[in-house]
Structure formats: C-alpha cells, structure tokens
Amino acid sequence: MSEATILIVEDEKDIRELLAYSLGKEGFTVVEADSGAAAIRLIDMKRPDLVILDLMLPGMDGLSVCKRMQRDASMAEIPVIMLTAKGEEVDRIVGLELGAADYIVKPFSLREVALRVRAVLRRGGARAQPSVMRCGPITVDSLRHTVMVDGSEVVLTVTEFRLLEDLLQNQGKVRDREQILTAVWGHSFEGYSRTVDTHVRRLRAKLGKGAEMIETVRGIGYRASGNKS
Ligand code: CA
Q: Which of 30, 61, 68, 202 is deepest in the core (most CB within 10 A)?
C-alpha cells in the first residue's frame, strides 16, 4: 500500500523539519518547500495528495499560494491544510473561502497534525465538510467559522467551535468523552475527560438558548439533539 505524498510549506526550518519527521514516521512521503514560489513549483512537479501550508511566508504568502492553486484546475483539487497563528482569524476565514480543507492553529501538537491529515485524506480532500449545520436554534457555518443562536452571533474559542462542530456532525448520536477528545484535541488519555466536561460547560454558557441542544448522556458523554426546538 503506498501512502500519500504530503507537501509541507513552511519557512521556519525547525517547524518544517519537525512536521516532516513526524509525518514521515507516520508513513507518509514528505516533500518540503520553504517559500510560496517553491511550493507552486513542487505542487506542479510532484502532485502531492495534500499540502500543509503556512500562511506566513516570505514573498508569496500562503493565501496567494491558495489563490494560485485555485486558478489551476488540477491544483485546485489538492486539499490544503493551513497553518495559522493565533490572531490570524481573518486570514483563516479567507483561506477557507479560498478552498482550504482545514486549518491548524499554532502551536499545535504533532498528533493533531497527523489526525487532521488523515481526516482530510479520508474524506477525499476538497473543501471543508458541509459548511452549514443546524441544530435547533443553533447554526454553525464551518466555512465562515461562525455560530449563530436564533440569528445572533456567538463568539467561541477554536476548541469550543470544534467541540460544537463535532457534536453537530454526529447529531442524534451519543459521543463518548474519548471520541470527543480524539476529534477535538487530537489525543485521548486518561484523566482528560474532565477537560471535555469543562469545555461543554463553557460552550453551553455561551450558547444561551441553544444550550439545551447539547444533552448530557449520563455515564457516557454528550449528544447534540436535533428534535427539540
Ligand atoms: Ca512561517
């Protein structure tokens, strides 16, 4: 079985090498670029299955690379996971609108990167999941990264957003804490189930009227219910 080829585009050598080492160990074939121009050249030559793209690059930046890829039909099909820093919210939204499949916020765990890479490859690349999901009064737009409850915007942290997204993607199904940890944090180890509870509590507090859509399933975990409202 031949594993996928992944192009890592990052000018910071330490981060690039760490990613390359870690994804190589996961069995992927890794190609590296340290600039946007080099990335476009390599995408053209090597046709990677996925691109991990840092937004902050000297010269041609990450968003320009996304735009350039969109102009070329064969490049546009290759899924992109963006690397962004905290505070690059706007760039992240633009990137998702430009067709990025997912994003990872720095600092990240290598485990999270591997998990997201596999998730994107599994769903066959292309854009982010169905962009708008509804659950009672809650509307989540994954592409625009917004959450509305009864038409008013609710501001969530990245973790809270992913948690809500995970529950809504599995609407009507019970998610145990381990599944939630793996999906949202990229790891699950004992003693961390309280982390899930804490975040669900914060999420509910922010959701106001929408809070009742997130049900506690005693002894197991949580479920987003779609049939109340
Ligand atoms: Ca960079």
A: 30
Instruction: Print the domain residue range for 63.
Output: 5-125
Residues 169, 96 share a domain:
no
Query: How much is the pTM?
Result: 0.59
Residue with tokens 């499949």: 101
pLDDT at residue 42, as a whole number: 96
Same structural domain for residues 9 and 115? Answer: yes
> Closest Cα partner for 88 from 100, 79, 76, 77?
100
Q: 132 falls in which pLDDT band (50, 70, 90)?
A: confident
CA of 71 to the centre of ligand 1 (A): 23
Amino acid at 2: S
Give me the pLDDT at residue 229, please: 40
